[in-house]
Amino acid sequence: MGQINLLVLVSLGYVLVLFIVAFAAERAARAGRIKWLRAPLIYTLSLSIYCTAWTFYGAVGFASRSGLEFVTIYLGPSLVMLGWWWIVRRLVRIGRNQRITSIADLISSRFGKSNLLAVGLTILAVVGTTPYIALQLQSVTQSYAVFAETSQSGLDQTDQATIAFWVAIGLGLFTILFGTRKLDVNERHDGVVMAIAVEAIVKLIALLAVGIFVVWGVAGGVAPMMEKINASDIGTWNVSGGRWAGLTFLSAAAFLCLPRMFHVMVVENADERHLRMASWAFPAYLMLMSLFVLPIAVTGLDLLPTGANPDMFVLTIPLSQGQNGLAMLSFLGGFSSATSMVIVAAIALSIMVSNHIVMPLWLHYSGSGLSVSGDVRYVVLLARRVSIGAVVMLAYFYFRLSGGGAALAAIGLVSFAGVAQVLPVMLGGIFWRGATRIGALGGLTVGFLIWGYSLFLPSLGEGVVYSQSFMEHGPFGLSWLAPQALFAIKGLDPILHCLLWSMLLNTTVFCLLSLVSFPQPLERLQGAQFVNVFEHGSSTRSWSSNVAQSEDLMVMAQRIIGAREAQSLFRREAEKQGISGLVPEPTPEFLDVLERELAGSVGAATAHAMVAPIVGGAAVSVDDLLAVADERAQLMVYSNKLETQSEELQRTAKQLRRANEKLTQLSVQKDGFLSQISHELRTPMTSIRSFSEILRDSADMPPADKARFAGIIHSETLRLTRLLDDLLDLSVLEAGRVSLNVSQKSLREILDTSIIGMGLGAETGFEIQRQRSREDILLRTDVDRLAQVFINVISNARKYCDAAAPCLKIHVFQSNEQVTVDFIDNGSVIDAGMRDVIFEKFSRVGENEAGGAGLGLSICREIMIRLGGEIFYLPGQGGSAFRVQFPRDMAQE
Ligand code: ADP
Question: At CA 662, angle to CA 661 and CA 664, rounded to 5?
């Protein structure tokens, strides 16, 4: 028993060293010396928990049975780190931004913070990991047993159980002590990570030492070793490509999805840049770990009696050669592999169990317990501790129940295949925005069901769950449903068979359901944040410190409300809090003030959405989203209003353009008239001047000529006066300075006086047709002005009517209080383009010798406006026609 006692002592001593290391690291972290604690090398070494006792001892066993195939277990993770490290980087960034605490948290958070997903994955993780922890306990007890055997004392079942029990207790305590010391928002455990890094070195050195001993101590150098390997069965390259690819994929998937790997890789990651070293250093570590596996296996098969357990070669070779010290070192290596795995797995599981199962239940049943924050922290820590204890004990009972037989050894690849079911959903979640919760639930369910049915249950051994006939012929004789020959694909390796169907159907269901289902608002938001994690450009800095929060808030506030305002706001708040400088504590009150200040610029919902992620309340509630939507709706209303306004503006601009065109047209006309009027004035002036000169110079002129010339001068003067009168009249009318002289008279009388005044009797040959009976309307208006309009229109008809027998019809209508008088001649029609223009001043159609100065109709229009009526050209009457309309009683208008 001496050997065993020594072994127990050594293990206890080793655990003590780990305690000290972890303790020192915790202290250093608290003292702020965290730089070297969170160095890339430590991070890389911590990843080595991938190599559990199953890998430490098992790799040699694996190689002894199936040769080079063991390499796949190292190849998968190496490929991920070398080639696909950017997947890890994305996971790390998302983990940081979203404060992800576990892989269950990652998936649930991505798919709308789904509780169902979180709880389901937590349970699966516990179910999948417990046997794996049991496997570690088994390997430790087995290694004790190996020592006991060589010391001839032996170790019976009860002894083994006792050892396993105490190992479980010890590991549980260690994990509780360093894994739940305090509640860190970032879930970082410096002590644990440091201890694991030390263990990583111990196991590497142990394996290398055994390897070196085997090559140089036993075989006598590299060359003889190579010969031995070539001579053995396992050294030959007899591997199936499919199995190789399958196993490599499996280990790569497990590397990304194992809860404990996710924990060290993503949750414990202190700095994204650490991945740069890990991406080459970790594959290098794995290479060193696998370097001597084959030599050790070959030597074991060579040296030890047939039937010796190849899983223990790492220990039994040194022991058989009397190298007790080396055996002890090798034992410590295995011990390290086992303990580090148990510790991290227990922490990772306890975080999941407490966050997704215990805490929701506790919050649900304790009512408003949330208000007392210290209380909650205590409950969380307690939940963690209990969960760790429960997980480790569960593993212990599993170990006892399974009897520590071969079933446990098979669990490695089986649990890898189970864990790999998370891969499609995880990758889909971080790269595909279209992935939905329904899809994830569907894919995971299908994947796990197939895995359980075709691999996990059969792995428990024939007769345990399935009978032999069930395995061969399937349920109810449906042979295409036989667990390991699904869809009638027979003869495939069970692992590959399960991997093929589970991954295929898992991914298909996930994609199809995602495509047909519609994501909830929160899901879409999370999806966008996950997939676009690098575009969001949030800082890689830790948000745990309040100062950093305040600085981030400051930067954001400056961007939105301007540097000066933001600075004065922050300074005021800092003064209020009694802090000098610009960085006040981000108290809830201050955040409220700030949010309101920002809301002034960007709206309340957006302000909230901006402040919330910085101060950590990263969850955006559905209410927030609705508020954002509301603001959008308001914006839509505004933009609609703007649209109508701009339409109105366009209309006005069109009108303006038309008015402008008319103006230009008029100004052209005016220019034309000015030359016209000078011509108009000049002609009578010239004749007046010449005839008056003749009269002055010819004294002996006959009196008849004298009278004729004086007559011409007189009529020319009259023409000039008329022109000047018209101009004057128009300018008075236009200026609105005219005073109306309202009196009563019948329309007939007004028309009569107008026509008679013009000297238009029947003898002139100009026929005027009237409806005298209808003209008997008594008007109250400026009678003289109205007559002026009639005279003008009638005389125009007379002047411009070019018919052979000119005729003018005067039609009268009366409706309500409106009187309409139409003047229709039988001459040629005025062009459509000119019908408005003739009413402008000085406008005339064509070169018309009979015409006046083009002022008549302008005057008419001005008068009609004053009389409350109008005059316009009336088209479609056969000849030129003008309609004059006005109220019967002007005073009543
Ligand atoms: P004017 O003093 O030259 O008669 P008006 O303003 O009265 O000027 O008329 C403007 C132009 O309208 C005239 O030059 C003439 O060409 C046209 N016009 C007016 N009345 C008639 C009509 N009854 N028939 C044909 N053309 C007309």
Answer: 65
Helix, strand, coil percentages for the chain (3-state, nearest 5): 75, 5, 25
Task: For residues 46 and 275, give the distance between their C-alpha atoms in angstroms, rounded to a whole number.
Answer: 12
Location of structure tokens 């701009």: 646
Q: Is 413 helix (H, G, I), strand (E, B) or coil?
A: helix
Q: How far is the CA of 698 from the centre of ligand 1 (A)?
A: 41
Q: Residue 821 forms beta bridges with which residues?
A: 812, 884
Q: Sheet with 807-815: list strands edge to edge.
A: 767-770, 807-815, 818-825, 881-887, 870-873
pLDDT at residue 369, as a whole number: 41
Q: Which atom number of ligand 1 is nearest to the Cα of residue 793?
A: 20
Mutation to probe ligand 1, out of 680, 788, 838, 855 (largest number of atoms < 8 A from CB): 838
Query: In terms of C-beta density within 10 A (0-12 exposed, 13-18 middle, 19 or more buried), how is residue 202 classed?
Result: buried
* Distance between Cα 851 and ligand 1 center (Å): 7
Residue with the smallest CA separation from ligand 1 atom 23 is 797
Which residues, at least 6 apart from 262, have a Cβ–Cβ distance to it below 8 Å? Answer: 91, 102, 103, 106, 256, 348
Looking at residue 465, the DSSP 8-state letter turns out to be: S
In this structure, the number of other CB atoms found within 10 A of the CB of residue 125 comes to 28
The rounded distance, in Å, linking the Cα atoms of 504 and 312 is 37
Residue-level pLDDT at 544: 36
Residue that the structure tokens 């655990």 belong to: 15
Shortest-distance Cα residue to atom 13 of ligand 1: 844
Q: Which atom of ligand 1 is nearest to the CA of 792?
A: 7
414 by Cβ neighbours in 10 Å (0-12 / 13-18 / 19+) ranks as buried
Task: Report, as an integer, the average pLDDT of 571-593.
Answer: 76
Average pLDDT over residues 814-841: 89
Interval between CA 232 and ligand 1 midpoint (Å)? 126
Strand partners, 781: 743
pLDDT at 539: 36
| Cβ proximity of 348 and 262 under 8 Å | yes
User: Cα(362) to centroid of ligand 1, in Å?
Assistant: 100
Within 8 A by CB and 6+ apart from 564, the residues are: none
**pLDDT higher at 606 or 669:** 669
In DSSP terms, which residues pair with 873 in a beta bridge?
882
735-792: per-residue pLDDT in tens? 777 788 899 999 999 999 888 888 776 667 788 999 889 999 999 999 999 999 999 9
What's the average model confidence in pLDDT over 96-114? 78
How far, in Å, from the CA of 722 to the mean position of ligand 1? 16
CA distances from 25 to 91, 262, 281 (A): 26, 22, 23
- Ligand 1 mutation target, pool 857, 877, 882, most atoms within 8 A of CB: 857
Centre of ligand 1 to C-alpha 661, Å, is 23
Q: Identify each DSSP E strand in 486-609 by its residue range.
A: none
What are the backbone dihedrals phi and psi of residue 818, each rounded to the nearest 5 degrees, phi first? -100, 140
pLDDT of residue 872: 94
Atom of ligand 1 nearest to the CA of 844: 14
Q: Which of 640, 608, 603 has the alpha carbon at shortest distance from 624?
A: 608
Q: Are strands 870-873 and 881-887 parallel, antiparallel or unpaired?
A: antiparallel
Which amino acid residue places its CA nearest to atom 24 of ligand 1? 800
CA of 874 to the centre of ligand 1 (A): 14
Distance 880 CA to ligand 1 centre (A): 10
Atom of ligand 1 nearest to the CA of 846: 16
Residue closest via CA to ligand 1's atom 16 equals: 845
The DSSP H or E segment spanning 333 is helix 324-352
Within 8 A by CB and 6+ apart from 245, the residues are: none
Which tens digit of pLDDT belongs to each residue from 212-238? Answer: 988 888 777 778 878 877 777 765 555
Contact residues of ligand 1, CB 6 A cut-off: 792, 796-797, 800-801, 825, 827, 830, 838, 843-845, 848, 851-858, 880
